[in-house]
Write a structure and sequence with these properties.
The complex is a heterodimer of chains A (324) and B (541). With 324 residues, chain A is α+β, with helices and mostly antiparallel strands. In chain A, 35% of the residues lie in helices and 21% in strands. Chain B has helices at 8-11, 22-26, 31-59, 70-105, 114-136, 150-154, 159-186, 199-231, 244-278, 285-298, 314-342, 351-374, 376-382, 386-416, 422-449, 463-493. The chains are: A alpha+beta (324), B mainly alpha (541).
Amino acid sequence: MLERLGLMPTQASTVSGDVDALYLSLVGLSLVFSLGIAAALAYFAIAYRRRSEAHEAEQIHGSLALELVWSIIPFTIAMGIFIWGASLFVTLKRPPDNALEIFAVGKQWMWKLQHLEGRREINALHIPVGRPVKVTLTSEDVIHSFFVPAFRVKQDAVPGRYSTVWFEATKTGSFHLFCAEYCGTEHSGMIGTVTVMEPDDYQDWLSAEMAGGMAGTAQGDDPLSVAAAGGELFRGLGCHTCHRQTAGALGPSLTELFGSQVSLRGGRTVLADEAYLRESIVDPRAKLVDGYQPVMPTFQGQVSEEGLMQLVAYIKSLAAEQDS
Amino acid sequence: MDTQVTNEHDRQEHYLNVDYGIRSWLLTRDHKRIALLYLGSITFMFFLGGIFALVIRLELLTPAGDIVGADTYNKLFTMHGVIMIFFFLIPSIPAVLGNFLVPLMIGARDLAFPRINLASWYIYSLGALFGLWAVFTGGVDTGWTFYAPYSTTASYTKVVPTIVGAFLVGFSSIFTGLNFIVTIHRMRAPGLTWFRLPLFIWAHYATSVIIILGTPVIAITLGLVAVERVFRIGIFDPALGGDPILFQHLFWFYSHPAVYIMILPSMGIISEVITCFSRKRIFGYSFIAVSSLAIALLGFLVWGHHMFVSGQSVYAALIFSVLSFAVAIPSAVKVFNWTATLYKGSISFEAPMVYALGFIGLFTIGGLTGLFLAALGLDVHVHDTYFVVAHFHYIMVGGAIMGYLAGIHFWWPKITGRLYPETLARIAALIVFLGFNLTFFPQFVLGYLGMPRRYYVYPPEFQVLNVMSTAGATILGVGYLLPMLYLTWSLRWGARAGANPWRATGLEWQTPSPPPTYNFATTPLVTEEPYAYPLREAREY
Ligand SMILES: [Cu+2]
Ligand SMILES: [Cu+2]
């Protein structure tokens, strides 16, 4: 009903109902409190209006009991809302393991997205309904923010960092994709459409060639998967010359790296996640692997953010191959 | 000011007529005159910021870009924010009403450091000149938040002059804050113990603490932005080896407490006005007083609630969220105590009271919607949308400016010796209240629907609510223009005010209106608590 009246956005993801429930409860709570205050003010204003100059107020200093009541009750309610909001947040922050992976790079002023299988899009995202989707975000220049109101999710895309956002669409259709962090001239033009499709249609779409019907949304003609493209880059940039399986190689082997604990020079250990891989490529000296010389050159500025995401995906795929 | 020496009233010497001429103003050390210098400066800035707001609202009347270009629009909202926050709201109540009233309310002859007080106005003016220079030589487009790396690397506008301006006005606030703290500690009239201080003084004390602790951080942060921008030294831009999230931490470490710099003084005014017009002692004096300090301290621990979707860790987010809920409690306590103060009062509805009641309503809505933003899972959706825009305007315009207007009307007779036209003022207060709600309430809905803030063009489905908002803004504009006109009018034609036209307690009312240069003929002796209504005898001076 509220949606039809134009007071609430469409619910199109598994969490949107939960977010709305919290929202509506807070709206209710706010109504109770603000109408309560308003009613008290109105009643006092009328009942105790000054009828004549002789009308004197009855002097009351306060009441400890009341102070306690109106501190403790709001505090308890506030803590309740905190817990509710926090548990929802934790859900929003934990992508399910089986999520479909998408890579997104924000840049002034467009969203560049790439599917794991290799298909690329600009300012458009096609996803299947009923399947969790995890988007890894970064930015090539300033901060942007990935915002899909119908899914009730938002995450900043920060240059030099990876962040993730996940959602599972529950409805097919087209929804707004906004940039929510101010990023300059065309900030309000940095918008796109999320198209939610039936899984079969999505598969068709993924494998569709650069044929007429799709020309508007699909970009580039790179048929390689993201990891494969990363493999090409890995060889093209000469990474393989140092990172070899053979003994005496200058750099450590990367085959089992992703997800493992790396011992660093100085005794610390660090989890090799996406952010670590990215950092190792653009700023190799930030964390030196124990037992190796700091000879790796920085690739900062030589590889685009999309290229970096492909390299990361490639290194991840090596570990996945080892597992299976 | 009224410089006509026409009748017997003006023969009495007061701070306005002791001396004439531009020099006597520009070199004055009288806190009351300095307050008026500030009043002139910030009113000008408010006017400018208000014009920007109106152009913004006109632009948003339709979904397309019509009256200005995208870059101009971005500059308009940036300069609206920068001017309203740094050059108007932060100095507004402390530098004008605080400056005028702190010595009067505590029975002192002036502030502790009159020269520093004058210096603060000059520094403010210099900062304002930098700000105006930036505005009139091309403007600045980073948003008032100056987020890096946009501000340090991507923006081609006048970022550095704006930063220098904000940096300088920061120092003027520090001077004012220092002056208040020392004055309140050292110069209280005999018998005026801490718990006999008016709540206006408590509020200014807490505000000064925040100013002194917080302002250096924003000054350094903005300085670092300038350094990175000019010398390309990597601090915030990852391309240079910096960290953009660090900027946000530093920026909000000040800018969240800055909200309390703007709202606490306003709360102080509300306590004075509510008691006066209900002729009643304040309910829960010590709870209101201490809640100001609690807000000042807790307010420093919640800055991360501006960064829930920036990529900070989940644990940090949880802590900032729970503390943000906690800081809401002292504010709620104040609202309850003000409401309870009316109970069994003898209430009349002069304009300051109308504003004060409006304040309570709007501040309550602003505070409650703050809970929506503190709730993590919900903030993810509403962060950086119009919901946030609506929320902080309820606090800063509905709260701080309503309080400021309540205070200006309340002490206008004291400041000028003249009464303002009462009926007109009440009508203006109602217009402000209605215009405000029509402007900003629709923005809550817009935000929940998903309209991001700082959008120059927007999808057509958001238009109806934007039209409502623009309509409200024009009404609000009229509401603000009216006091500017009739208050100016009253300087010459307003009825003479006696020393205590409202029959209020408080030392400032026990000296003539306008007060003499050194405030009191003899230092008053304080023997009772504040707000000792009913006023036993209406003394005339
Ligand atoms: Cu943007
Ligand atoms: Cu804040």
